[in-house]
Amino acid sequence: MVLHDYIMAGHLRNKRLNRGLRIFRFYRTLGRRSEGNEGNEGKGDTMLAKVLSCAINGLEGMLVEVEVDIANGIPAFTVVGLGDTAVQESRERVRAAIRNSGLSFPTRRITVNLAPADVRKAGPAYDLSIAVGVLLASEQIAGDVSRSVFIGELSLDGTLRHTDGVLPMVAVAREQAIDTVYVPYEDAAEAALVEDLTIVPVRTLADLVAHATGERPLQSYLPEHAFDYDEVTYPVDFQDVRGQEHVKRALEIAAAGAHNVLMTGTPGAGKTMMARALMSILPPMTLDEALEVTKIYSVSGQLPRDTPLVRQRPFCAPHHTTSLAGLVGGGGAAGCGQGWSPWPTGGCCSWMSCRSLAPSWKSCANPWKTAS
Length: 372
Fold this sequence. Notes:
By secondary structure, the chain is of the alpha/beta class. It has 2 domains: about 50-215, 2-Layer Sandwich (Ribosomal Protein S5, domain 2), CATH 3.30.230; about 230-365, Rossmann fold. It has helices at about 1-35, 85-90, 90-100, 125-135, 165-175, 190, 205-215, 245-255, 270-280, 285-300, 325-330, 340-345, and strands spanning about 50-55, 60-70, 75-80, 110-115, 150, 155, 160, 180-185, 200, 260-265, 315, 350, 365. Helix 6 links the parallel strand 8 (about 180-185) and strand 9.
């Protein structure tokens, strides 16, 4: 029994020594390779790539410079620049998307910096720009991307998914004199609302690589529908309301002069219905107003996929128990509240049973600005 234990202990000792020896040889070989390549760094090898993307700050967009550095060392993939969990998880999405697109993911030390580093980055919109940066730094593609912006979330097979907030991102790209913006295919109609830009819809990462190499150039997106006032319809039309002549007269005055309206009455008298009908007699939104409303819908993730441009004036009816933060928005990452719609473009907001201010206050319709 003692001899058996002695033999087993010696066997385990030898296994540990062999494992340690293999690890030592691996790192020694890796170090020699690094020393041998030190003199070649910066002499023709593309170790650093810079790609432009966009971030959302409140309701406005801002340019983000994605810097990708590939160096010799222990294989690693690090993303810095104050990114949230979705940004950190982009490492796995980008790695899988590159491999499943028939490309090679470099097994070296990769560092990605999202500049400016003091601005919080949220969401998966940086996936495409990080992937392009990795491919540029590893010399799998080549080209001048200093005048281009890349926006989009990558799936594991390399397909680009829908991304919220595309419109304000594209708008800031135009302000910064960017020429071309690459967006997911289903977001091209929304991005094309911004004029004087070349919008290139991308379905997959492989398609973008083929475009960069010149094998299959991608076509820029051309808008199919122009801005048309005649298509605007509302669920409740003011002309269909029967009776309530004194209320209708008050709403007409409010719509003409941009006044607030305070409606009181018993439940079921038609206060909310009249507030909804007010939208149909307000003047149509201009293109700038429609773009501003669409921008808010896009950032909040409420923009319908089949409606790239919101033409209807927004209407909201928050409950009387809604808190101040829920009404006007806020939080660590500033977001829209339930009462955001009337502020920028003259929508209508109706508060039901607002008992905290007055027992008889039942509904407030505001065609242009917030209630005072």
